[in-house]
Design brief:
about 450 residues, alpha/beta, Rossmann fold, 3-stranded antiparallel sheet
């Protein structure tokens, strides 16, 4: 008997109690006699009972033991006693590097709110960003990162208009990605509001069916939620799920309308408190006749902004020109500074061990061969680049220093505990073959890492 969507939703239970990871491929989900999902946990299967409140215990809160997931548990061990969270602990704490998906604007833990008046081009901009992330390409002045798995949920347009928008986006992007999924309300007319339990279960069902995602674009708040958007009660039911997506390293881009006052999002202002980045699309002061889309993008909130990435969060004029291409007033991206000789050594060793023992599909389905940071660290210790007798936190600090340089020039990609070489060439950059994976030397057959299994 074929299982219906409704049957599946009833069987999956609430989002808060399942605590499923949606990043990496997992074994086929099984269910116990009561219909509750059985999750894989450290080599054993356990039932995630629907009547067990999420976050009730200390472990469930994500502080100790099984509460941490592999992708974002601190490798230095999280203190069991809150009194141990001192300044020294925080300064030496080893946390995963950001997994960038588009410039420094979007990562797998980003929560971005894009606000604009009706008709200004929110969907066109959202689809352009989604396609760029899926293809691992740049968009305007935001740099290319790795290819990502992107889910676009549209709650407003007809299927015909969405197809038209996708065709336009594909024409401007110039490529087709197999890792962008678009869900349209016309195809799922019974799509429940996301601020109700069934709506979040429906979204989780989609994520499970497509095998996990890196980022979700929600288009838009008014059409995907129910209730008066002037009150915080409409948004409050979303907070546990939004935070859970972040915990599972699923980035979020939410599209939102303005009201009569086009200088802010419609409704309750407290909604913005939960977002890292808030961007406002304004009508251009002097619009150019004949342009399909034209607006000024201003960032009213940017937690990720630093002196080194300010360009990604500066006000910018954006439009689609007469040749149907996206353009902006932002300065062209400057060629990235070459990493230090030591960082290049770290890169070549990563190439070597990835070619020797790297495994595909580790951080996400379709990922190239990758290794863990722990394996990379062991390799650098073995070759003498890191002092074998150093404290573990000192070793991690050395690796993080050069990993950051390689991420900045887009030579490597990082997702959770996994890392792999990508070496994306930027405009004006012409790197020698010695800097790439093809220039590395393979480990010998008697090298300890050539027989090492991924931890």
């Amino acid at each position: 008997m074929t299982e219906t969507v409704e049957d599946r939703l009833n069987r999956l239970g609430s989002v808060e109690t399942r605590k499923r990871r949606s990043r990496a491929p997992e074994p086929e989900v099984e269910f116990d006699e009561e219909g509750n999902p059985i999750e894989y946990d450290g080599g054993t299967w356990r039932a995630a009972h629907a009547d067990e409140p999420a976050g009730e215990s200390f472990e469930d809160a994500g502080h100790a033991g099984k509460g941490n997931t592999d992708d974002h548990a601190a490798t230095d061990g999280v203190p069991a006693d809150p009194s141990q969270f001192t300044l020294g602990y925080w300064l030496n704490r080893n946390l995963p590097e950001p997994d960038y998906l588009l410039g420094d604007l979007v990562t797998t833990t980003s929560r971005v709110l894009l606000i604009g008046p009706t008709g200004i081009g929110k969907t066109n901009l959202g689809l352009a960003i989604a396609l760029a992330m899926a293809a691992g390409s740049s968009f305007l002045h935001w740099a290319a990162r790795r290819p990502a798995r992107v889910l676009y949920i549209d709650g407003e347009m007809s299927a015909r208009l969405m197809k038209d928008r996708l065709q336009g986006a594909k024409g401007r992007q110039g490529s087709v990605s197999s890792t962008l999924w678009t869900i349209n309300r016309e195809d799922f007319p019974s799509l429940p509001p996301l601020n109700a339990g069934d709506g979040q279960k429906f979204a989780e069902w989609i994520i499970e069916r497509i095998g996990g995602v890196d980022v979700i674009v929600f288009d838009n708040i008014q059409s995907l939620l129910i209730g008066s958007h002037k009150e915080d009660e409409t948004w409050a039911p979303m907070l546990p799920w939004i935070r859970d997506l972040t915990r599972r390293r699923v980035g979020q881009l939410w599209l939102h309308h303005t009201g009569h006052d086009t200088s802010k999002g419609y409704g309750d202002k407290t909604r913005e408190w939960e977002f890292d980045t808030v961007a406002l699309m304004r009508v251009s002061d002097a619009p150019t006749p004949g342009r399909l889309i034209e607006f000024r993008l201003e960032f009213t909130k940017a937690r990720e902004r630093t002196p080194s990435n300010r360009a990604d969060f500066e006000p910018v004029d954006i439009w689609i020109d007469e040749s149907n291409r996206w353009q902006s007033s932002a300065s062209p991206m400057k060629p990235r500074k070459m990493p230090s000789p030591t960082a290049q050594t770290y890169y070549r060793e990563l190439c070597n061990i990835t070619a020797q023992i790297g495994e595909p599909n580790l951080p996400f389905r379709g990922a190239p061969p990758a290794v863990t940071r722990a394996v990379w660290l062991d390799q650098m210790v073995h070759r003498g680049s890191i002092n074998e007798g150093a404290e573990p936190n000192v070793k991690q600090a050395h690796l993080s220093k050069y990993q950051a340089q390689l991420i900045d020039v887009r030579w490597i990609a990082v997702s959770g505990k996994y890392v792999w070489p990508i070496r994306i060439l930027g405009q004006g950059e012409n790197w020698s073959s010695g800097d790439g994976c093809s220039g590395g030397k393979q480990p010998s057959s008697n090298h300890p890492l050539s027989r090492q299994k991924q931890p």
